[in-house]
Amino acid sequence: MQHFYQSVYDLIVETSTNLPGDVRRAVQAATEKEDKGTRSALSLSRISDNIHMAECNVSPICQDTGMPTFIIHCPVGANQIIMKKQILEAVANATKASKLRTNSVDSLTGANTGDNLGPGTPVIHFEQWERDEVEVKLILKGGGCENKNIQYSLPAELEGVGKAGRDLDGIRKCIMHAVYQAQGQGCSAGFIGVGIGGDRTSGYELAKHQLFRHVDDVNPHPELRKVEEYVMEHANTLGIGTMGFGGQVTLLGCKVGVANRLPASFFVSVAYNCWAFRRQGVLLNPETGEINGWSYPRGSEVSFQEAFEASAEAAKNVKEEDRREIVLTTPISEEQIRSLKVGDVVVINGTMHTGRDALHKYLMDHDAPIDLNGAAIYHCGPVMSKDESGEWHVKAAGPTTSIREEPYQGDIIKKFGIRAVIGKGGMGPKTLAALKDHGGVYLNAIGGAAQYYAQCFKKVEGVDFMEFGIPEAMWHLETEGFAAIVTMDSHGNSLHADVEKNAFEKLSALKEPVFK
Ligand SMILES: O=C(O)C[C@H](O)C(=O)O
Ligand code: SF4
């Protein structure tokens, strides 16, 4: 197994940077289905560009590495201790090479281990099988979509769809509710894996395992196939759309598995995965550890080159006056902000500051290290690399889910005079009220488009709070051409609230029993 380390390293790089072929086809199909010229269509084309860029740059598709989870099948007698050691080595080295973000954080102190190793990370499962080969599968499922996983205990009363009993129709209701509650926050359009039965732990595990199925496979179990088909058809009537911007495509895949349960329990567990559905696998020669084949079609088999060129061409052909783009340079004035409304595309130049969970908590009762009057704050935990001369570079930098900052954001906007908050998935009523009072705007960037946004950061001007770790530090970035959509304005309008309300009506229309 002298090649085992290298094969695992190659698997990590492939998974992080090159979206598999079956996932790409689903994104392509969504692009074809979405109404042309809409915000969702525009976002899907940015997503396609990003997929292409990540492949070309051999850089992370999304900055969030998630919890690297390995599933290994090996013949009887294979040395699992050595395999585990080499997997850890490969993870640490891929992190050093900026193919993965430093994502392992001490839950109590918040300290980042810096190499993705630590208690419980990465996750490694071994299983023996009769075949004379080793299979290593890997999934990188980000934290934002992980937060949208949900587990139901039946019977239950669910908002919108009402009573969900211990039967196929109750299961149907749970799944539809799961898609509804995710809204755009898990970077829709997404994929879901559903586990029926088991206990709380094995139910979630079963759900996550469904994500290892091929996007285009057909469930051999007739009842489950019916549920999958129903969900695929009806989830897309909820109108949530890409990034929750509203639209025709909300779900790209639904896979349901079943296990036995206890008489007292009936769990329906749902694992939500964003469009940046990064999972791949390799089949290895059991003697040498060399790669014999890949478990899923590779990204390079479904090229996005053409789509990339077409969207670059289309962008060139848009007339200046049709662009409806407002270019703002930081610091931004109140007057400029008050002139913006939901739906405008804003292009930001000047300095932008990143800040996410640790920073927001800190700023509540401390001063900021720099003047934030008129500033644009970006909810983002980037992948960074330092060159030999000690200079930092942004390697991947898409937005993180903003709603986590809801308890702090309104106060922080007012305390420091921030004018633009950039993130994804939208924020709640407290922030909306602060935007109105103070004169601020929320801009929704496209989640997962980490390569697309990284190119907007021309230089790292400085960094504060490195003690929070790379993703949580406050990076000061010289920015050029960072485009995002106003989804919450200073006049009390929120596209997120509108889309959610509309989706709730659509969900409620699915209350009547379907599977009797
Ligand atoms: O941690 C991140 O960078 C993003 C996260 O995956 C999210 O979706 O919020
Ligand atoms: S930012 Fe979006 S695309 Fe990236 S891991 Fe989080 S949910 Fe997925």
From TrEMBL:
It catalyses: (S)-malate = fumarate + H2O. Residues 315-498 form the Fe-S hydro-lyase tartrate dehydratase beta-type catalytic domain. One of its GO terms (molecular function) is fumarate hydratase activity. Its EC number is 4.2.1.2. Residues 6-280 form the Fe-S hydro-lyase tartrate dehydratase alpha-type catalytic domain. Pfam families: Fumerase, Fumerase_C. It comes from the Bacteria. Its cofactor is [4Fe-4S] cluster. InterPro entries: Fe-S_hydro-lyase_TtdA-typ_cat (IPR004646), Fe-S_hydro-lyase_TtdB-typ_cat (IPR004647), Fe-S_hydroAse_TtdB_cat_sf (IPR036660), Fe_dep_fumarate_hydratase (IPR011167). Keywords: 4Fe-4S, Iron, Iron-sulfur, Lyase, Metal-binding. Gene3D superfamilies: Fe-S hydro-lyase, tartrate dehydratase beta-type, catalytic domain (3.20.130.10). SUPFAM superfamilies: FumA C-terminal domain-like (SSF117457). Belongs to the class-I fumarase family. Homodimer. Catalyzes the reversible hydration of fumarate to (S)-malate. This is Fumarate hydratase class I. It comes from Paenibacillus aceris. The lineage of its organism: Bacteria, Bacillati, Bacillota, Bacilli, Bacillales.
